[in-house]
Amino acid sequence: MSADDIQQLTYDEAVALLPDGDTVHTFMQAGPILIGADWERAKILELLRLAGPEIELAGPAAQDTGHGMAAYDADGTAVFIETRKAS
Known about the structure:
The chain has 87 residues and is of the alpha+beta class. It has one domain (7-67). The chain is built from three helices and five strands. Strand 4 and strand 5 (78-81) form a beta hairpin. The longest helix has 11 residues, at 41-51. The termini are far apart.
């Protein structure tokens, strides 16, 4: 995906994509592997608030796993975030 293809999301748009519930599943890159973990919803909201303009729709591979959004933490690490299932 080129920089021209990246679709930035606002905080409100990102929150609207989150699934219901108290936890949200994430994936993060750890060298050659991905590590998955459930995060408390409040921690995801904090990440999205701090990420500011660094929230975007994820690429097709991440979307296929149900993690259609990416936000970047303070270290620049991408966090792939679970999104609502299409209705």
